[in-house]
Amino acid sequence: MQKIRIISRNSQLAMWQANHVKEKLISANPGLFVDIIGITTEGDRILDKSLEKIGGKGLFIKELEYQLLHENADIAVHSLKDLPAKLPEEFILAAILEREDPHDAFVSNNYQSIDELPDGAIVGTSSARRSAILRKYYPQLEIKLLRGNLQTRLAKLDNGDYDAIILAVAGLKRLGLAERIKTILPAKIFVPAIGQGVLAVEILASRKNELLSLLKKIEDIDTSRLVGAEREMGRFMNASCNVPIAGYARMENNQLHLSAIIADPDNVSFYTAEITGDPDSYLQIGQECARLLLADGAQEILGKYL
Ligand SMILES: NCc1[nH]cc(CCC(=O)O)c1CC(=O)O
């Protein structure tokens, strides 16, 4: 295989990510040609409704998968956080890249930190996870829907529609917009999304023999284990995409440490769990963390929002 065609959303962030994978692939596989094909997905076109209402995060990825199925492209580059816990069976993750900063960022033009916001201040987010965390720890703040790509969201903040917005640090850094970050929100409260800050390469399972060896060269093994634990937890919970869920694994003293949240979108209950174990047992750690949440009562949330 001499040439790889990458399919990507054509937002600036997605294109940066596709280019990053392209450069990594070329330096790991000298002589390889890599092309990038950008497309606008439905999720990018419809900006006036919450993602949950128009079909969830899946909207962004289905159209990329369609291009893989029809072999108009060889690989798809995604933010891992946008991929569902279970991929459709025709597809596999062929590579997980090294994690960028996984935290959420507080972005505002008038306030230096979230704790400075006055009662009733308007905070923009479209994430069920960020909303649940805000309702739990900052009930005095008002949450207002904020959609669109990174530039659109920042423009809406600058227009004065919001007092502050919450965005992933990783996306801002990738676009050279790190100076917009006022504070990095602590992972103890703002537990990051499963896979946040991580790029993943998806391929057709049937093309594994042809593509896998070339792609595995850009995999980061440590990140792969950490997000393996996070995604196993998510898979085990089998939560629908409108249920607020967080999962964040990191290494501490050679142990894998996983923290998680699952909450009720209607703001009735909020469950957290933390678990530490041998990094080689990352799948068991993910499952055990899910069992802790379920034993606590999270089962009831899952039943309600299937
Ligand atoms: N929800 C969209 C999305 N998907 C991935 C990122 C950021 C990059 C990443 O987490 O890898 C973002 C933007 C955001 O949440 O602010």
From TrEMBL:
Pathway: Porphyrin-containing compound metabolism; protoporphyrin-IX biosynthesis; coproporphyrinogen-III from 5-aminolevulinate: step 2/4
Catalytic activity: 4 porphobilinogen + H2O = hydroxymethylbilane + 4 NH4(+)
A Gene Ontology molecular function term of the record: hydroxymethylbilane synthase activity
Cofactor note: Binds 1 dipyrromethane group covalently.
Biological process (GO), any one: protoporphyrinogen IX biosynthetic process
Domain Porphobilinogen deaminase C-terminal, residue spans: 227-294
Keywords assigned: Porphyrin biosynthesis, Transferase
Positions of post-translational S-(dipyrrolylmethanemethyl)cysteine modification: C241
PROSITE patterns: PORPHOBILINOGEN_DEAM
GO cellular-component term (any): cytoplasm
Enzyme class per UniProt: transferase
Name of a matching Pfam family: Porphobil_deam
Cofactor(s) of this protein: dipyrromethane
UniProt similarity note: Belongs to the HMBS family.
Miscellaneous comment as given in the Swiss-Prot or TrEMBL entry: The porphobilinogen subunits are added to the dipyrromethane group.
Known partners and oligomeric status: Monomer.
Role noted for this protein: Tetrapolymerization of the monopyrrole PBG into the hydroxymethylbilane pre-uroporphyrinogen in several discrete steps.
Protein name: Porphobilinogen deaminase
Species whose genome carries this gene: Aquella oligotrophica
